[in-house]
Write a structure and sequence with these properties.
Length: 94
């Protein structure tokens, strides 16, 4: 873990300000959601990304894509498997 040398105090509501330099570096914009993890005596903040688990293969990747308004998430492999199965079923239905 790399130290930034930046120290911030926790306010009376338990809030901590993340410096703009860090937010810019990590691509965290105003209103972005952060995930909070605990690792022994450390609090880890990570920019939240919606669950991108492929509905077919179970692969989790930021490269997966969401379809049908986010109801279906597919990896490339999952999309190919689904397309093959759809083509087979449509051929049988003819």
């Amino acid at each position: 873990m790399k130290s930034t040398g930046i120290v911030r105090k926790v306010d009376e509501l338990g809030r901590v300000v993340i410096p703009i330099e860090l937010r810019r570096t990590l691509g965290i914009a105003e209103k972005d959601s952060l995930e909070i993890y605990v690792d022994d005596d450390r609090i880890v903040l990570k920019k939240y990304k919606p669950n991108m688990t492929c509905s077919i293969t179970g692969e989790v990747s930021d490269h997966n894509f969401a379809l049908a308004n986010g109801k279906i998430v597919l990896s490339r492999e999952g999309a190919e498997l689904l397309l093959k199965e759809l083509q087979e079923n449509l051929a049988v239905a003819k």
